[in-house]
Design brief:
Its main location: membrane. By secondary structure, this protein is an all-alpha fold. It contains 13 helices and two strands.
Length: about 400
């Protein structure tokens, strides 16, 4: 067994990760039901879709500031603040009376997600070095998707009874609070920290700013396309006759299970920082094409599994490449920038996909997404091959 799995800090970080990247998509199976429940609101079709992406807007704005906060105040306090906000704002959809107030609570949820995600990503860089860091990021991505699998599948079952019930899932942050308080200690400070708790900072790899920028850009564009799945897939499935909310939960579950498996594999198989995400993009393209051509549940699940596998290859590589390049004292900022890019991509996704759906239909929109991932693969290869190899300098401590 990997020694990382014997470290309670690893499990604490993985548990925190389950609340983050797919947190917005947890209520995906509820969208058609919520739209029907608030049918008297003329803005219901728009607002129900924004319930998925609204947290992303606040995360995109706040995450860099949350990263700076984590660099200056330490990692634990932002993490624990984020858990408290996540629990309160996430469950508010159970009782708030209007779609507009639920939308406001989803924006507050984004603040909690920003604090949790930037702090726990920085802790990965603080607690672990070298290959262990990459493996843990793979495990963490797997935990995110396994959590998403459990959350979305459960949400599909709950939404079949009441479209508000899936909001209760966010209450899982409450029991996690005392657990993470106990097992995630504050790491030594770097760089500007003073006193006996300060740890010596390590020199940055050459070109680390460029590396971080490229990885953040790739992550953001990936999510612009990818997030058509949670925002548009339930409606596409209804269009091909799969109207039960459990069908959406099942398809999303297949995607997350596949992403969990491939995230672990991506941390163990070292294909390089170009080949790994390019392979991921190719799987994403095939998955989107399969979703577009699907006429039944089996084909939709197969396409979703390919999408999950592709995301599992891409995302850990983007994050670990940036963290490996950055100096320790800027890990919070770098994790905040990538978090911001991911969630900005999520927010922009329906703004890009909805016009495509209007002009091309759901199948045409998903085929366009497949072509987009192919173009991203070509662009990433071109950019990284021209760039000087910024990660060739090995730190003696990593």
């Amino acid at each position: 067994m990997d020694r990382l799995l014997a470290d309670p800090r690893s499990w604490g970080l993985m548990l925190a990760a389950t609340l983050t990247v797919m947190s917005n998509a947890t209520i995906t199976p509820s969208l058609p039901g919520l739209e029907a429940a608030f049918a008297d609101d003329p803005l219901a079709p728009t607002i129900t879709r924004l319930l998925i992406t609204a947290p992303s807007l606040l995360v995109a704005v706040v995450a860099p500031l949350a990263g700076v906060l984590a660099d200056r105040l330490g990692r634990r306090r932002p993490l624990l603040w984020g858990l408290a906000i996540y629990a309160v704002a996430g469950t508010a959809g159970l009782y708030l009376p209007t779609l507009e107030t639920i939308l406001a609570s989803r924006l507050a949820l984004g603040l909690g997600v920003a604090l949790i995600m930037t702090a726990q990503a920085a802790l990965v860089g603080d607690y672990f070095d070298g290959p262990a860091r990459g493996r843990l990021m793979g495990y963490q991505m797997a935990a995110t998707n396994l959590g998403g699998l459990a959350f979305v599948t459960t949400a599909g079952l709950l939404a079949a009874s009441d479209p508000r019930l899936p909001f209760a899932i966010y209450g899982l942050a409450v029991p996690l609070f005392p657990l993470l308080w106990r097992i995630l200690p504050e790491p030594p400070r770097h760089g500007s920290a003073r006193g006996p708790a300060a740890a010596p900072d390590l020199p940055a790899d050459p070109g680390w700013r460029m590396v971080a920028g490229v990885m953040a850009g790739a992550a953001g564009l990936t999510f612009v396309i990818f997030y058509a799945v949670p925002t548009q897939l339930p409606y596409h499935l209804r269009g091909i006759g799969l109207e039960d909310p459990r069908h959406a939960g099942t398809v999303m579950g297949a995607m997350m299970a596949s992403a969990a498996v491939m995230s672990v594999i991506s941390g163990l198989v070292r294909l390089g920082r170009i080949a790994t995400p390019v392979l991921g993009y190719l799987m994403l393209a095939l998955g989107f094409a399969a979703i577009a051509l699907a006429h039944g549940l089996a084909m939709a699940m197969a396409g979703a599994a390919l999408i999950g596998a592709g995301l599992g290859f891409c995302m850990p590589t983007f994050i670990t490449t940036a963290l490996n390049a950055a100096p320790a004292r800027y890990r919070g900022l770098v994790s905040g920038l990538i978090t911001s890019a991911i969630f900005l991509g999520q927010f922009l996704s329906p703004l890009a996909s909805t016009p495509l759906v209007a002009h091309l239909g759901y199948a045409g929109a998903f085929l366009t997404g497949a072509a987009g991932f192919g173009l991203l693969a070509v662009a990433l290869v071109a950019i990284l091959r021209r760039q000087a190899p910024a990660l060739h300098v090995k730190r003696t401590a990593e």
